[in-house]
Specification:
A hairpin with a 6-residue loop joins strand 1 (about 250-255) and strand 2. The protein contains 11 helices and 2 strands; from the N terminus they run αααααααααααββ. The protein is extended, with a radius of gyration of 25 Å. The protein has a two-stranded antiparallel sheet with strand order 1-2. About 65% of the residues lie in helices and about 0% in strands.
Length: about 260
Amino acid sequence: MNIKQRTWEIVEAAQDNDKASWYFDVFIMLLIALNIFASILESVATLELAYLQYFSLFEIFSVTIFTIEYLARLWSCTTSPDYQNPIKGRIRFIFSPMSLIDLFAIGPFFIPFIGYDLRTLRALRLFRVLRLAKASRYSKSLELIKKVVDSRKEELVITTIFMATFLLASSTVLYFCENPTQPDKFSSIPATMWWAIATLTTVGYGDIYPITALGKVCASIFAILGIGMFALPTGILGAGFVEEIQKKKTKLVCPHCQKEIKK
């Protein structure tokens, strides 16, 4: 086995019994967790001023590790059947969702060195929180969530379209019901969408509410329908989790050697 193949196995596609890959995953997971914790502490002004040097050193260390990890993936990805072509394969790898997350997680650190005004880049520091999304590479539980979402994406897309349509319809109806009476609050359909979101999700802030009889009747109907409509994604994802867990519990055994067949 060559070095490139072994590197890819450690950083990306290891077997379950690969200890080197396991130690690597644990190390990266701990580093991600410490990065999120540091980002939280750094948001406290007094702590940032008192320990700015330590935060900066830890940031440099973390970015160095994450950059080495990213470059190792980019270098060794050609050993995978999905990225075999040295040029096209690497381009496809760079634009894969997880690689983009890796890039956005470390990118803001290097942007100031290009020469841009640092004051305009402070907001980009928030991208460090994306390092939490990197954890999905190393956790089987997070991988399960990804599988569930992938398997139910069509149902989720259809449900999202229904929810958006229902949101638009309820906002439109309430706008025409309440605008003549409350032109300041129900000033437009986009403004009425705030009421629709707060009502259909059962949050109900109470800052905007109908006062006409027709508006109250329509709002009551929309609120009742909204409970079921906005609960649909939860049911879809719940069913997906049950299905994936059942698949894991159902083991296929070879009739000849009596060993488990991995799916």
